[in-house]
Write the structure tokens for this entry.
Amino acid sequence: MSVEKLMKLPIKHLALALSLALLTLIPVTGAHAATLDEAKSQGMVCELPTGYLKPTGKATGEVNAMVQGINAKRKAEYERIAKENNVQPDQVGKLTAQKLGPRCP
């Protein structure tokens, strides 16, 4: 299925993927707790065109752990949505990335 067809999927499916991808309130434990938004604004995390996060060289161990957790949740959700709509999970991820906007340099 093409990205164009994927974009025409029922909004509830895309909304789930997008809401998962936009997880911004996952706290990180420790003295330097951060949310995804904070990590992005500090240049520690960026969005890949695949719909997954990438920690940068500025990322702390806590941020790296947060990224791994979020990416695992995104993967599970992309797979679920893809199965329901008979598409590949990478197509769901790419569409989510398009909706998220700014990407890694």
Summary: The two ends are 28 Å apart (CA to CA). The mean pLDDT is 77.
